[in-house]
């Protein structure tokens, strides 16, 4: 035991070692083991949460791609409907314009015919009155 004395180890060191061993056993059973279990349980939950988050992220990406494809399909459908409506409106517009044009031409022709008939009747009246007016003018000029 002289070697222990030379190293500076006395009997209180053994007692301290025993107290240290008892404290270490106590702390490992009471503090470190529950902490390690809680940490392990937390890691399990976190890993499950990470996997769940990755799964939800993958689902979100899939849903987004489905949403975008459906939106593109709906946009194409709406474009087709709008194009069809525009072509229908253009056809209706063209037919209405053509109908109006024909109606206007018909009215113009009817009015031309009426005007021509009126011109002829007025012309005939003037011819009929020409002799009467000529006789009146000559009699006034001659003083009769």
Describe the structure in your own words.
The chain has 144 residues and is an all-alpha fold. The chain has one domain (2-142). Helices cover 96% and strands 0% of the residues. It contains two helices and no strands. It has helices at 2-7, 11-142. The chain is rod-shaped and about 185 Å long. The mean pLDDT is 89.
Quick gist of this model?
The protein has 144 residues and is mainly α.
Please report the distance between the alpha carbons of the first and last residues.
187 Å
The tally of helices reads 2
**Percent in helix:** over 70%
Low-confidence stretches: none
Rg calc: 58 Å
Strand content: under 5%
Mean pLDDT: 89
Keywords for this entry:
mainly alpha; 2 helices; 0% strand
Topology:
Elements (H helix, E strand, L loop, with lengths): L1 H6 L3 H132 L2
């Amino acid at each position: 035991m002289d070697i222990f004395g030379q190293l500076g180890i006395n009997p209180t060191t053994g007692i301290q070692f025993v107290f240290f061993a008892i404290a270490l056993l106590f702390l490992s059973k009471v503090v470190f083991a529950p902490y390690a279990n809680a940490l392990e349980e937390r890691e399990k939950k976190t890993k499950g949460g990470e996997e769940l988050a990755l799964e939800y992220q993958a689902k979100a990406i899939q849903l987004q791609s489905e949403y975008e494809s459906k939106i593109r399909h709906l946009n194409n459908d709406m474009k087709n409907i709008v194009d069809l409506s525009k072509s229908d409106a253009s056809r209706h517009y063209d037919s209405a314009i053509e109908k109006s044009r024909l109606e206007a031409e018909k009215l113009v022709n009817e009015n031309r015919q009426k005007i021509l008939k009126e011109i002829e009747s007025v012309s005939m009246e003037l011819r009929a009155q020409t002799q009467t007016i000529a006789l009146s003018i000559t009699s006034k000029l001659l003083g009769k």
